[in-house]
Amino acid sequence: MNDSTPEKQPQRVPKSPNAQKEDNLVSVNSDELSAYNPRGTHPHSAPKEHLAPIHLIPTEILLHIIHFYVKGSADPVQDLSALTLVYQRWHAVVEDASSLWDRIDAYEGLAAVRKRLRMAKDAALHITYNQRHSRTDQLAFFEAIGERIDQSRSLVVDGLEAEHCCAILETTIPRRLETLHLSGYTGLRGRSDDEPLILFSGAAAPPGLRDVHLACIPGIAVTPLKRLHSFFLSALAAPHLQKLHIECNMRGNPASQLLNDDLVRLVPTLTSLISTASEIQVTSTNSFEWLCNHLGGHLDKLPFHLGIEAYKSNLAYLEWFTSRVVVTKLSLWASSDVWDFKSSTGEMVRLLSHPIPSSPTSWFLPDVEVLVSSLVWEGSHPEILEMIERRHSANREQHGGSGAPKKFKEIWLSCGNPSARKPMRPNVVFLKAVETAGEGADLYWEGKKWTSAGHEE
Fold it and tell me: 108 and 95 in contact (C-beta within 8 Å)?
């Protein structure tokens, strides 16, 4: 009878919710985990000598690894969520690290945006809406963000219009905001051109605001600059402002009308900005001349980077530059036209190779110490080399006096030939001659440092 008595089966004890959760977490990648943990022991309870190396990594290093893992992902939110299922420790690390969730980008879609907002908690946010890549419209995107825009550290909106973001910024001052980029090429619907757009309720801008880029925001794009003036007044109150970039579309209005009739009202504001500016970028000749005439006292002390494309001989204009501002870096670029590519080389280089005709002891752009040229082709080698030799020779003969050209500290050369299908191989004989003429100047070919040893560093 004993032999026929059925054995008692051990009772199955229900697992706690936490234990069930842990089973679920581990079972997702159980085959992979068993390869790293062949004994099947719990990493937190097992002796250290039995733990796989991944379990011994400090949390901050594990976070760096996760950051790199999701950096180039097409769906980072999904990948982060998958990592929480690998192991309980990873689950805690990923969910507790707000830095993994603080980049709110419309290209991920609304579901991902809402998930990121929940996980980021009270962290400073980097918010981006690019209409070309977005998976949602601007209204829905900013409605999802709502009051959390107050947490934004950077706010970038690039699209046909920026009305929803601008509407929020009219009444909200994101106290942590450091970067503000707004582009809206078709306008703010429901507003007239003369209706002012006053950001931050007319109050001072966020105290940490450092970088402002406004592109074709209406009220800036049209001739009456009331909106631009309002924003300037707000931006001026930001003590750490380092960069202000404004792109204006004249919309058929002559540049002279905009500069003389409207922008002149902003001279006091612009003067305050430029007095502490370390870099000013001007792409319009008319605008540059206007700035020099109205704000010259501040511009005289700033080093300038002058970029010239397909230069056509204009002695008077180049002489004006020489007498008006201090150009320390000169870039010569080729246009898309092959003829301009060749003809512009000789004109500009020859002017830099001789003193100013009206003053034999003064040279064009004497303060240039960094030369960047993409106009290098076989026929230009003698002219470029002669220009460097003559300027350095004049520096020695005039003992670096007033009007004498300074010696080059950096020479960046490349072939900008628009018909070239691949980068031109360096002419070793030519570059060695340039290195000798440069008298210690750092020499670069196609963006890489070049030495007489015959190799690129």
Answer: no
pLDDT tens-digit map of 124-136:
999 999 988 899 9
Identify which of 66, 143, 136 has the alpha carbon closest to the alpha carbon of residue 105.
Answer: 136
For the chain, the average pLDDT equals 75
Residue whose C-alpha is closest to residue 408's, from 432, 378, 374, 434: 434
- Which one is predicted more confidently, 314 or 409? 409
Spatial distance between the Cα atoms of 359 and 311, rounded to a whole number of angstroms: 22
Which residue is it, tokens 């030519």?
430
pLDDT in the model for residue 221: 39
Minimum mean pLDDT range among 21-30, 151-160, 324-333: 21-30
pTM: 0.59
Give 170-190 pLDDT, tens digit per residue: 888 899 999 999 887 655 555
Which pLDDT tens digit goes with each residue over 284-310?
Answer: 666 677 777 777 666 777 788 888 775
SS3 sequence of the chain? CCCCCCCCCCCCCCCCHHHHHHHHHHHCCHHHHHHHCCCCCCCCCCCHHHCCHHHHCCHHHHHHHHHHHHHCCCCHHHHHHHHCCCCHHHHHHHHHCHHHCCEEEHHHCHHHHHHHHHHHCCCCEEEEEECCCCCCCHHHHHHHHHHHHHHEEEEEEEECCCHHHHHHHHHCCCCCCCEEEEEECCCCCCCCCCCCCCHHHHCCCCCCCCEEEEECCCCCCCCCCHHHHHHHHHHHCCCCCCEEEEECCCCCCCHHHHHHHHHHHHHHHHHHHHCCCCCCCCCCHHHHHHHHHHHHHHHCCCEEEEEEECCCCCHHHHHHHHHHCEEEEEEEECCCCHHHHHHHHHHHHHHHCCEECCEEEEECCCCCCEEEECECCHHHHHHHHHHHHHHHHHHHHCCCCCCCCCCCCEEEECECCCCCCCCCCCCHHHHHHHHHHHCCCEEEECCEEECCCCCEC
Radius of gyration (C-alpha) of the chain in whole angstroms: 31
d(Cα 347, Cα 51) in Å, to the nearest integer? Answer: 71
> Which residue, 243, 167, 166, 231, is CA-closest to 205?
231
CA nearest neighbour of 220 among 268, 258, 190, 189: 258
Would you place residue 359 in the very low, low, confident or very high pLDDT band (cuts 50, 70, 90)? confident
Burial class for 224, CB neighbours closer than 10 Å (0-12, 13-18, 19+)? middle
Q: How many CB atoms lie within 10 A of CB 78?
A: 15
